[in-house]
Amino acid sequence: MNLRSLGMGLVAASLATTAVAETTVNVLSINRDSTPWRTLYDDVVAEYNANNPGVTVTVEYMEDESFKQKLPTLLQSASAPDMFFSWSGGVFYEQAQQGFLKHLPDDVVSAWQQELSPGGMAALSYKDKFYGAPEASQNVAIWYNKDHAAALGVDPTSIETWDDLLAMVQVAKDGGVTPFVVGGQDKWPLHFFYSFLAMRIMGQDGMAASAAGENGGFDNADWVRAGQEYLRLIELEPFQNGFMGVKYDQATGLWGDGESLFHLMGDWDLGASRGAASDGGLSNDQLGVIPFPMVTGGKGAVTDTLGGASGFVLTSKAGPEAIDFLKTFMGVEAQQRAAREGVYIPTVPSAGGLVEDPILKQFAAIGGASTYHQLFLDQFFGSSLGGAINDVSAQMATGDITAEEAAALLEETRAFQ
Amino acid sequence: MARTAHTSLWQRWAQDDQLRMILIFVPPAILVFTVFVMMPMLQAGFFAPWKWSGYGPAPWAMNETTQTTFGRWVGDRNFERMLGHSAFRQAVWNSGLVIAVSLLVQLPLALALALMIYRTSRANTVFRLIFFLPYILAEVATGLIFAFALDGNYGLSAWLSQLVGLEEAWFPLAERPWAYYSILAVLVWKYFGFHMMIYIAGLQSINSELLESAEIDGATSWQKAWYIKIPLIWPAITVSIFYSVLGALQVFDLVMPMTAGGPSNSSHTLVSYLYNFGFIRLDVGFGSAVGVFLFVTGVVFALAYRNTVQRGQ
């Protein structure tokens, strides 16, 4: 071989390398155990890979708790993914603030706000910068068991105020039916009651003021009243026997077995309770859904919603290919398919109407009519203050602290942040 | 003998060829000890005065994106907050309860059983095996088993409640203070066998001539136990007390599956408190402060115990 051909060979080799240079986009997701969800991801990824030669997308799945534990170190390492699943809220704010995330260019933001959900985009924004694309929307409402309601002679759809609900709880107690099942050991199922009461009482402005530490932060009359209303419910002993020793999974199994009249839980409970129940759970005909009622004199609205806003966010190492894939991954087409197949309730407005499952449809309607969507308080306020909200919700349920003490404890935790 | 008195330790090592052994075996041990024991302890000490979520290499490291440090200096406020936290005081009290129950229930029980079955016989071997079995079970598995057994819906508790005619099933793990009492009961059940084995080993090494002469002098079996056996196995007892107190400070694996610290943070031990409020809530500085407290407690106890009870052993 002479020198010239060697040079040619080198040139050819380097050209070849450029031609097959592959950009990989690594996605880290939480486990998508339900087959339709996993299949949806697989199909979207396969199609994207086929249509975009030169880009390879790989998705890695991790169990929720290990995902949470591993992420802080993973984000700082060389093997950080290009994008990962986020529940938004305090943990997401921390990641954005510490500079581990990449914000979207302005033109991309305005285009996505047109097509995807502006509200969902806002949940994944921090200080006016947008970091990702929203996926499913989750809402919490009161489920009721139609069989029990008929037997007790009550109509839960007539409930308008908190007092109406408490009256119906009493009817159930008198009729020998457990009013609510709850997984008290996990604490967060209890915090839904306290959160909703606070939202109904103080409204969006009051909640924002508390978060900002204005008007006494959490130690004010509104939070105390939220606690007092919650304690009115607790005094009726509305929960199943031994509720503080039961986790959500077991509690929702009890609900699926028809153990109670009501269940305060999110839309995801439909699949969860059927999976956990001993014989397939309650059928669509047995299930009803009503929004959490108004509290008389409150500044909120019955259409204010509490729930999740999850999606995928970009890490600081994400390139333009990652942004392009995210657009497809969380895009209109994928979300419409999710809606049609009942995989999840999409955030994209044009997909919301496609939900066919009669129960999920009601949740989609609640989400669609939302006048103010509040992220789960234990996520919105971050791990520390959010954890404290869960703590006081449980402590009030066991009668260990008063409404005033709960408010003071929350303010103390907030002030320390 | 005179020679050894005058030669230094160093010379002796060199002569006995022990130096090579020391050079081969000691550095790896020191390395492992430094990396996995000393470093984390020192780190906890350095992290404790910071409010830090765990992002970034260290709370004092500069974050290039934000031009501030990853953590925020809060001085002694983590300690202040910890000492003022009702759940922390409950955790300290609970850890104290473990020590009390170990010393007053578990060790006397283990000693009594050891005195009954320390002699070698087939029946005694069977009993020893039975009493020792709980110790072999993994702690998390034990916790899960008892979480089921004490569940009022389908566990032993449901059956018992029915048997005694309770109208509503009893859920000990959902009620304070029963949740923590249940954990204490399981701890006693799980570890008495271990202490019993320590005592049996001690009892078996007692010279039988001593006991025979006591018998000839007309000592009752109570007198033999009190005046001969227990004093002779006192070193074994002090070791078992030492283990049981340090073990009490480390209780964690049983608490998580049984109650996860609930209801309302009433059944946390120091370690489960640290895990819950430091790790789960991403408050590494606060968790480090709890770790420092735990470390100091352990060291103070160990030093005090070594210099008093175990002095001269």
From TrEMBL, chain A:
The keyword Cell inner membrane does not apply. Keywords: Signal, Transport. Pfam families: SBP_bac_1. The keyword Nucleotidyltransferase does not apply. GO terms for molecular function: maltose binding. GO terms for biological process: maltodextrin transmembrane transport; maltose transport. InterPro entries: SBP. GO terms for cellular component: ATP-binding cassette (ABC) transporter complex, substrate-binding subunit-containing. Residues 1-21 form the signal peptide. Belongs to the bacterial solute-binding protein 1 family. This is Maltose/maltodextrin ABC transporter, substrate binding periplasmic protein MalE.
